[in-house]
# Entry
Amino acid sequence: MLTRNQLQTLQAARRQGIGRLLLLARRDFLDRLADRMANDAFVMSHANEHKAVMSQASGRLLPFIDLDGTRSVDLARRMGVSKQAIGRLVKELEEAGLLHREPDGADKRAFLVKFTEPGLDYLRCMHASIQRIEDEYTEIVGAERMQSLRESLSQIAYGEEK
# Structure
């Protein structure tokens, strides 16, 4: 049985662990993004009946799709989910008119997931919302710390040097 002091130490470590902080920050980001997109005039006028689907699925999947298209197997690997889960998300976003699948010229058995023209418009709208969220974060932590955070995360995510 852990002592009270050990439990307090463990709780502090969990609260400040980088993995937990990143997960909580991602949740905050996705919540803010879903809220912005749900209240965006473009989204409301072009996708009324699919707005809820898009706000949930798009924030998770769209960042992993390359502008020239991405194979489903690569999307599954990037997101850390099954090919079946990717298939469901892609289908939802196809039905919303944001994505389409086309045969991969390099592999006849595979398909590329690509943005439609409305999907690219939606992506631009999404990035405008992301910029507003980043502006909010900059107000919270300050410009210098935000730049440092961006550089640190880029180095971790992409192996980029300053």
